[in-house]
Amino acid sequence: MSKRPSSPTVESAPKRARQLDAAPALAPSLDSWLKSSPSAPPAPPPLLASSPPLHASSSTFIAFALSFVPPPTVCSQETLKKEAARAVRALDVVRLVGAELLASDDGAFANGESRAPGRRAGKERAREPDHRTWAVRTLALAEGKDGTSGEEDYQLLEASEDDGERFGGERVLRTLRELGGVDVLCIVCRWFGGDMLGPVRFTYMATVAHTSSKELVAMLTRRELRAVLVGLDSEISDMRKTIAGPKPPEEGEKAPVPPSYDDIDDVERLQRLVKARELTQKSLEKRVGCAALEQSGAE
């Protein structure tokens, strides 16, 4: 099957964005994570980033951006909206940021507001947000396609939901479009404390959506570049073995440990490393060809 088109790349995101529950480089899709069997080994969650809380009057806004690769059954806006809505409901917002919001004592959480009874007597927790306004953009298989014909088998699908914030979903979707975000689901949560904010609330929603989504797209870019580097390192290692010729293993010799790039967060540095590996690969390809000619001549 042909490779699914990749998401576009962006520059590094603002430092204020947070990475939450980040998964390893080859994390499963959001769909497979949510559908994983309880008896199966726990699968890592998809990539997840959040904005810092934005407190305005008696309201608080936070946005979450999740990596979103739809299952093959999603081939229309309607099916995409159903799949995304299920993921939005599954996001445990209170577990992720509840303690931080309570400690802030600001916005909707000022003066002990927006509390809910905790599981233990005498304990409180943050209440659920009043609104979960969201938007999603993703590449999905076109109806009747299976991906074997390449990129033309895929279509860009978009969906959004206001959840009580009229026109809010479209505003979040516009932010994703401006970023060029693909395979991204952005959820803007609002805790309403009673004071009406008027149209400025859409500016606040766009601000937190931009912060979290830009960080997530950068995370997706870093994950893809790291995977490319691992693949190139493997190919380069095999080519060097071919050039060196057959070599019996020495007693006690251990297999070399492949390098890890998980500690490199700078997108530009990862891109430079990819270019360097590609140049090395091209150089070795010529030597592999020469080695093959020498071997055939010796035979």
From TrEMBL:
Pfam family, one: Impact_N
Annotated region described as Disordered, given as residue ranges: 1-52, 108-129, 240-263
A Gene Ontology cellular-component term: cytoplasm
Domain Impact N-terminal: 124-209
Entry-linked InterPro entries: Impact (IPR023582), Impact_N (IPR001498), Impact_N_sf (IPR036956), Ribosomal_Su5_D2-typ_SF (IPR020568)
Similarity remark: Belongs to the IMPACT family.
Name of the protein in question: Impact N-terminal domain-containing protein
